[in-house]
Specification:
Blueprint: E1 4-8, H1 13-24, E2 28-33, E3 42-44, H2 54-59, E4 62-65, H3 78-100, E5 107-113, E6 124-125, H4 136-146, H5 149-153, E7 158-163, E8 166-167, H6 172-182, E9 187-189, E10 199-200, H7 201-213, E11 219-223, H8 231-241, E12 248-250, H9 252-259, H10 263-267, E13 271-272, H11 275-279
């Protein structure tokens, strides 16, 4: 069955690939864009002014929110931290409220982050695990998820996409890492024993399409690979793939200073498992 899917954040790396996959599956996609547009497959919105075509959102089959300020920026800046938070929470809440106001609330696939859990060491984490700590992205992810509540309260099928860093040669994480490793400067972060959550682009897109198409799927979903490697394992594998050594180590104290508010994401351990995705029938 063909679906009408409204996508916010459609011009980003993930949004671009998701749009393509949905259209290849025969679904109709309407993009929410910030600039005035006359394109038939796009609609202008302004989440900071609370402006969105509520009839469009309410009439969709599925709404996907991937909007949010880039995580790459001045990690020591309060302005950057504020934009990271507000861009995610405001867009999520506005769409949740528009969905809640619909006669038949569409499904809501609400973007979120795997940082929701906070550092749990080696403990295996599923969607029922607790959220702990006060790291920036952990705190943001809690508020981000709570912003989707109006849609769920109105009866919408809400899927919270707790997304891990998406690994692909074209994705932001790898575009930063590969040049360093090619220069022989890649190495462990701190002890390297921390589990490093991640997912391939193919599986992230495949999983989101799966959740859009399966109307029994709801709740939080860990968007991560089936087995989470440690930072040391990832480092050794990437270095081997690029035929480069991986002797370097970035000491934890230096990383805490240099990475600022993002340091907990690099040194914390998230041994996550996509239990809900597997239970929903997704095959990696």
């Amino acid at each position: 069955m063909s679906l009408h899917v409204v996508v916010a954040g459609s011009s980003g790396f993930l949004g671009t690939h998701l749009r393509q996959a949905l259209r290849e599956r025969g679904h109709r996609v309407t993009r929410l864009v910030r600039s005035p547009t006359s394109e038939q497959d796009a609609s202008t919105w302004d989440p900071y002014a609370g402006v969105v075509d509520r009839d469009l959102v309410g009439g969709a089959d599925v709404v996907v929110n991937l909007a949010g300020a880039p995580l790459i920026g001045n990690v020591h800046s309060d302005k950057w931290a504020r934009e990271v938070r507000e861009s995610r929470v405001r867009t999520t809440r506005l769409l949740a409220e528009a969905i809640a106001g619909a006669e038949r609330p569409p499904a809501y696939l609400a973007g979120n982050g795997i940082a929701f859990y906070g550092d749990h060491g080696d403990q295996l984490l599923t969607e029922t695990s607790d959220s702990r700590g006060d790291a920036l992205l952990t705190d943001v992810s809690r508020e981000w998820e709570a912003a989707a509540a109006p849609a769920a309260a109105a009866g919408s099928r809400v899927c919270v996409l707790r997304t891990s860093p998406v690994m692909d040669r074209r994705s932001p994480p790898m575009k930063q890492l590969v040049p360093l490793f090619k220069l022989g400067l890649g190495g462990r972060l701190g002890s390297g024993r921390q589990h490093m959550a991640m997912i391939s682009l193919r599986d992230w897109v495949g999983a989101v399409v799966h959740l859009a198409e399966h109307d029994s799927a709801a709740g939080p979903f860990n968007m991560c690979c089936e087995t989470t490697p440690t930072n040391a394992e990832f480092t050794e594998t990437l270095a081997s793939a690029l035929h480069r050594p991986s002797f370097a180590t970035v000491p934890a104290p230096l990383l805490r200073v240099g990475a600022g508010k993002m340091a907990p994401e690099l040194l914390g351990s998230l041994n996550v498992r996509p239990e809900a995705l597997l239970a929903a029938g997704y095959t990696f």
